Amino acid sequence: MANVPLDIEVLVVAALAPIFGVVAFWFLQLIFIEIQKWMLSKLRHRHEAFCRFTNFIGILFQTICQALGYTVTRSGIASFQVTVNYGKVQPKKEKTGVFEWIVHSFLLIGPFFIPAGLVLLVSYFVIGKGFAFPTPVYYTFVESLTDFGVSLFTFAHEFVGFLVNIDLFNPLHIGFLFVLLFFGLGIRPSYIGEQRKEKINLIHDLKHIKNHLVQKPLYILAIILIIYAFYILSLFLNPMLYVGLFSLFGWMSLTAIIAVLLTYPVLLLIKITDEIRTHWKVIPFITLAVSYILARVFFIYYPIKQVEKVSLLVMILSTLIITILLIKYKKTNRFKTAPKMKHVRVTDGKKRTFKKRAD
Amino acid sequence: MVRKELLKNEQIERVLSPHPLSFMKLQALCIFVIVWGIVVWWLTKFSQYTSIFNGNIWYPLILWGLVMLLIGVVASLVTIRWSIFFLYLCVFVGALGLIFWQHWEKDTALFLFLYSIAVSIAGFLIVELYRRSHKYIITDLRIIFKGGIFTKRERTIRYDKIADIDAKQGILGQIFGFGTIIPVSESGFGLGSDKTMAAGGVEIGTKRAKLFGFAGGGKEVQTPIARSYYELHGVYPYKDVKQLVEELLQTHVSTQYEKEQVEFQKEQVDIQKQMRDLLHKQVREKPSGKSVRQPTEEENTEENENEGKEKMMMKKNIAEEDTFPPEQVDIQQQMKELLKKQKITRATQPEEDEAEEEETEEEDDKNKEEGKEIA
Questions:
Q1: How is chain A split into domains, by residue range?
Q2: Where is average pLDDT lowest: A150-159, A298-307, B301-310?
Q3: Bigger pLDDT: B253 or A251?
Q4: Under an 8 A CB cutoff, do B46 and A170 touch?
Q5: Secondary structure class of B209 (helix, strand, coil)
Q6: pLDDT of residue A293
Q7: So what's the architecture of B3-18+134-190+226-252 in CATH?
Q8: Closest CA in chain A for residue B172
C-alpha cells in the first residue's frame, strides 16, 4: 500500500489528468477520421465499389458494437443483420432506463474504441513491446499527465518502429498490415449511405454524443463517481491501475490514428492513379509490389544493415517516381464527368447509353 | 449468332454473363493454395522454425499436404461438395508424383512454392474459362441460359412458366453490384434441397462382446438451388436486371386488374344477350308495333349528315323511353351501372394502356348507339 499525501491536488485534480489525455487523443482521432471521410468522398464517384466496401466495414463494426451493448446489458440478440447499406440488431428483450442508455453509448462511442481495441490485441501478439505502465510517485496532476504521455509515447515509439521495419516477406507482418488497413478503413462511426442525404461529419457525431450525454445527467454523474471511486481505491491499492486504465484507452486512440493515417497513402494512390490512362494506371500498384521484391532479392546478394527499412524506402520512392512520370507522360486525355458515363442510362433504365438531351 | 436462335418476332432485351468475381468460391480455392504455398516456403526457409524442417526433407510436403487436405475436408463439409476435397487430393498427388518423377526431393519447399503458384494460376484460368462459357439472353418472351466448357448446357424458360423468382446478393455482390436470380419453374426446376446428416458410432467392450451404437439424423430443406448455367448467376447490374425480369414477368402473368376486366366484359356480354333476347321477344309479340332493327351504315351516314334530324330523333327517343317495357328498362339500368363501375375502376388504374381505353370508349359509344337504336 502506497503512502498517499493528503492534498487536494492528489485527491481531486490528479484524477482528471488521464481523462484529459484520453479526450484530447479522441478529438485527434475524430479529426483524422474526418480527413479520411473527406478523402473517401472525393473518390466516391469513380470508386463506388471501394467506398461500398469501406462502408461495409464501418457498418459491420457499428453493428458489432450495438450487439455488444445488448449482450452486456443482457438484453439478448434476436436478429443480427449486416449489409453494405445498413446494419440491424434486434434485442430479445427491450430494456429501458440505464440499459437502453448503455446500449446507445456502445453504439455511439463503441466504434471509436472497439475496432481499435481489436487491433491493439493483435498488435500485442505481433509487436509485443511498448505496453508499459509508469508508476506514479508524487500523485500530482502534472505527474499523472506525464505518466499518461510517457505510456503513450513508449507504445507509439514501438508501434511506429515496427511499421518502419516491417518485413513484407513475413506472412505475419503482412497479415498485420492488412488488418491495420482493414480496421483503419472501418474505424469510422458515421454511417455513409448509398446516397448522401444529410451531412454527417465531425460536428454531427459530436452533436449526437452530446445529446446522448446531456439527456441523462444522472448517469454521467454516476459514471464520474464510479471513476473517482476507482481512482481513490487505486491510490491506496495500486496507483498504476488508474493511469493504466486510461493509458489503455489512449493506446486504442493512438492505434486508431495510426491505422487511419496508414490508409491515407492508399487513398491518395487510388486518387492519383485516376489521372493516368486506363491501362497504365495499374503500373504504380505493380511497381509497389515488384520494387519491394526486387530490392529484397538484391539485398540477399549484396547484404546491408536494415534491409527491411531500406527496401520499404526503395518501394515508396520507386512508386512515387513511376507515378509522377506516368502522370506527366501518360495523363488521361479523357473528358471526365462527375458520374461515370456508363452509369448514365436513359429514363427507362434499360439501355446503357448517353442521356439524351431534352431539346 | 444469338439472333439465329430467336423465335419469330422475339426481341432481345439483354445479353448477360456472370461478373468476374461471382465465382469467388472457386477462386478462393486457388487463393488458398497460393497463400499456403507461400506460407510453407516462408516457414521452411525464412522463419524462426526453419530448424524443425531441416531434419527431414519430407516435412514441408507432409505439412503442406496435410493442411491442404484438412482444409479440403472442412470446405467440403461446409459447402456439401466433396469435389473440393478430391480437387485438393489431386493437387497433392500431383505434387507427390512430380517430386518422385523428376527427383526434386532436395528442395521440396521451393518446389511446393512454385507448384502452388502454377496450380493456382491454372485454377484461375479454368475458372475464368468456365465463367466466360456462361451466357444469359433475356428476351421479351423467355430467358435463355447457356453454359459449360466441354458439355454445352442450355435452359429456356418462358415468363408465363415462371412460378417464383429467388434473388440473392452476397456481401461481395453488394459491394460490386452483382447478384444471382433463380427463376423457379412450375415443375420445380430451380428448387433443390440442403441435406445435413449427423452420425456417430460407439464401441463398447474389448474382447468378445462388442456393442455398437449408432445415432444419426437428417434434415432436408427445400431451397432455390440451380447450377450456374441454369440461373442468372452473378449478373451485373443486379438491380436493373432484377427489375427487368420482374417487369417482363408481370407482362406475361394476368394481373388482378386484368381478371376484373374479363369479369366486366363477361357481365356486359350477358346483359347484351339478355337485351337481344328481350328484343326478339318484343318483335315477336308486337309485329305491328315500333320496328326495332340494327342500324345500317347508310342510315348512320344519314344521321351524321343531318344533325338536326338526329336531335329530333333523340328528343323523340327520350320522350318514348317512358313507354319501354319494365324488363328493358332494368337491363338498361344494369348496363349503366356496369359502365359506371367500370369507369370508377379504371380511374383507380392510372397506368392503363391507351389502346384499351380507346377500345372501351368505342364499346361505350356502340352501346349508347345501340341503346338509342333500341329505343
A1: 8-264, 275-343
A2: B301-310
A3: A251
A4: yes
A5: coil
A6: 92
A7: Roll (2.30)
A8: A53
- Three-class SS state of B213: strand
Domain coordinates of chain B in residue numbers? 3-18+134-190+226-252, 24-132, 256-374
Task: Determine the pLDDT at residue A322.
Answer: 94
CA distance A128 to chain B (A): 16
Q: How far apart are CA B38 and CA B54, in angstroms?
A: 18
Whether A53 has its CB under 8 Å from any CB of chain B: the answer is: yes
User: Which residues in chain B are contacts of A85 at CB distance < 8 A?
Assistant: 174
Tell me if ipTM is over 0.90.
no
- Within an 8 Å CB–CB cutoff, is residue A171 touching chain B? yes
pLDDT for the residue B289: 47
Q: Can you read off the three cell numbers belonging to residue A346?
A: 436513359
CB-CB neighbours of A117 under 10 Å: 18
| Nearest-CA distance A252 → chain B (Å) | 28
The pairs formed by A5-11 with CB atoms below 8 angstroms and a separation of 24 or more are A5/A139, A7/A139, A9/A139, A9/A140, A9/A141, A10/A139, A10/A140, A10/A235, A11/A232, A11/A235
Query: Which residues of chain B are under the pLDDT cut of 50?
Result: 289-292, 319, 321, 352-353, 373-375
What grid cell was written down for B280?
326478339
Q: Tell how far CA B115 is from the center of its chain.
A: 42
Cell of B339: 359502365
Residue of A nearest to B40 (CA): A171
The model's pLDDT over B47-102, given as tens digits with 9 standing for 90+, comes to: 888 888 877 888 889 999 999 999 999 988 888 788 899 999 999 999 999 998 98
Span B276-319, pLDDT tens digits = 888 888 887 765 544 445 555 555 555 555 555 555 555 555 54
Which residues, other chains included, contact A3 with Cβ-Cβ below 8 Å and sequence gap of 6+? Answer: none
For residues B64 and B70, give the distance between their C-alpha atoms in angstroms, rounded to a whole number: 10
Say which of B14, B42, B174 has its CB closest to residue A52.
B174
